[in-house]
Amino acid sequence: MTDAMEDSQSRFGADRAEPIAIIGLDARLPGAASLALFWQNLTACKESVGPPPDTRPEASGLGPAGYLEDVSGFDADFFAISDEEARLMDPIQRLALESAWHCVEEAGWRPADLAKLDTGVFVATGKSDYEECMQKAELAPTGHLPTGVASALVANRISFSLGLTGPSIAVDTACSGALTALHLAAQAIRAGDCEAALVGAVNVILSSTLSDGLAEEGALSPDGCTRSFDSAANGYARGEGAVFLLLKPLRRAEADGDHIHGLMLGSAICHGGRANWLTAPNPAAQKNLIVKAWRRAQIDPRSITYVEAHGTGTPLGDPIEFNALRRADEAMAAEAGGSEGGPPCLVGSLKPNIGHLEAVSGLAGVIKVLLAMRHGQIPGHPTLTDPNTMCKTTGTRLHLARQTEDWTRPTSASGAVLPRRAGVSAFGFGGALGHVVLEEPPPVSAASARIGNKHVLPILPVSAKTQAGLDRYVRALAGFAGSGDAPALSDFLYTFQCGRVCLPQRIAFLAESWPSLSETLDNWLEGRSDARILSSAADAALPGSGDELAELAVAFARQWITDGKSDFAALYGESRARRVSAPVYPFSRKHVWFETPEARVARETEPRHGMTAPSDLVRPGTGEPS
């Protein structure tokens, strides 16, 4: 790194806007039941694109794409939504509602606490295939239909259900929608419109209509393989997904003891204006957009060492994007004090792995970058064999990411290690563009953990809507406790005490160490007696132990089990421990789908005997009970 670069670090950072901290995340992505598995797939350069899985009868007959395993399962009872209303809710709304809830829980917060911050909700969405399917089935309109398919309700449903009072905005700028929503949320926080924001996007594929049109336009790959930046690129495969992030200003996040996944340093959105035709990319607009976002980040651009590109795998779009990025990098390098030098910058794209998630694609890219920062690796490219020669890498610091490799942190001329930084692009096919600049999380501040380990009550309170839900939750916690990757026990307990909603079915576990807690959870699951398990006010744990903190914990837990009103957070006052990522609520997966008029009549006239559990509905395309 040159002296000019080091000098410009100071100059660029002089008036830097406060970074926005990403403190919570949730993602449902093709080919992975968890983010851990998703990361494994990325580093293994695995493609998760193919025909609809057997678990998706409603998608049977559709072409290859990156499919989710389940888009019809929904825990309507958890959100106090009737079966009739749930059936007429677009799966986009259902996925958004559950993903937003999990995002808040993953951050270690309760919706009621976020409501005090005028938390905003910004959600990218697009075409409703579900509405099209209902029209084809000739469903008669009902009172729940307008709210079930209206795109505005994707954001509004979340604000209503979680009791959030900040801006509630649905965004549709096509494939740049997620980054547009992210940009608007950050701007709203900086403008004081809200103190926190949920940002998300959802995409599902239930009809061939859009795919057929994109194929006619030449955008889709005939063989369902996305070959971003390869000479054989012939279009992209579509994909499904749901991603949500929770944002706060960095200083507020550190003061609240939030765990931080990464920082958003700068962002920009624009339209390409006039081009050769409506869906044609504008290279000048792409270059200017990246320059604007990098300037707003107030860092030397040569400290950006990875860019997650849009990379749709089209022979025209890929070189236009790559060379626009190259020109932006050169322009910013000159502005920073020199046209040469700087560490290599790798360029990659997620689309060959999971398809093009359309409205979700930008946030899916953000998730990939956050995971790469966490693990210190940049995933390789599963379909890159012969790079497109029009992607000019010669004489630049830009190189295509081919194999998974370590992501080393850049250093300044004085030897100071700089944080990992990356850019993420998403471009809509109507000309709306977005780009964000991310940085890995800062070291944990001492101010973010004010409660000593010895002062957090050694109790794990667990609650669920139903007994079955409680069983699933404890099982997930037992697996977490025995995984060997658990955080500090005091932070984990604090997160559950102060960052989870109290639900009707309640149980508590005395937790003096991870091995002890793991054993206790297993004992409960196996039905073995254990004095450390509190399931009612009458349970007596560790009588006469002499440990004042343990006795206080047991007494408070008993009261919490009895009335569900005792608030652990009140015990800590203004003091806080760190909030950590931990297992989130295990929603039930009840199959929810609209009914044809014939199926509805059959259900309503079916005899309901005491010994029979009739089906509420029928799985589409199967005629079999759900």
Tally the beta strands: 18
| Low confidence ranges | 1-14, 610-626
Tell me the structural class: alpha/beta
**What characteristic shape results from the CA principal axes?**
globular
Helix content: 25-40%
What share of the residues does DSSP label as strand, in percent? Answer: 5-15%
Characteristics:
626 residues, alpha/beta, 3-stranded antiparallel beta sheet, 18 strands, globular, disordered C terminus
What layout of secondary structure does this protein have?
Layout (H helix, E strand, L loop, with lengths): L2 H10 L7 E9 L6 H9 L21 E2 L16 H5 L3 H16 L4 H5 L4 E5 L4 H8 L8 H5 L2 H11 L5 E4 L5 H15 L5 E7 L5 H9 L20 E2 L1 E9 H6 L6 E10 L11 H15 L8 E3 L8 H20 L8 E4 L2 H4 L6 H15 L1 E2 L19 E3 L4 E2 L14 E7 L4 E8 L19 E6 L2 H15 L7 H10 L6 E6 L3 H12 L7 E2 L13 H16 L5 H4 L24 H9 L21
Parallel strand pairs: 2-6, 3-4, 3-5, 9-10, 9-14, 10-12
Antiparallel strand pairs: 1-7, 1-8, 5-7, 8-15, 11-13, 14-15, 16-17, 17-18
Helix pairs in contact: 4-8, 12-13, 16-18
Short description:
The protein is of the alpha/beta class and 626 residues long.
Protein described:
The protein is of the alpha/beta class. The chain has 21 helices and 18 strands. It has an eleven-stranded mixed sheet with strand order 4-3-5-7-1-8-15-14-9-10-12, with helices on both faces. Strands 16-17-18 form a three-stranded antiparallel sheet, sandwiched between helices. Strand 9 (306-308), helix 13 (317-336) and strand 10 (345-348) form a beta-alpha-beta unit. Helix 4 crosses helix 8, helix 12 (283-297) crosses helix 13 and helix 16 (467-481) runs antiparallel to helix 18.
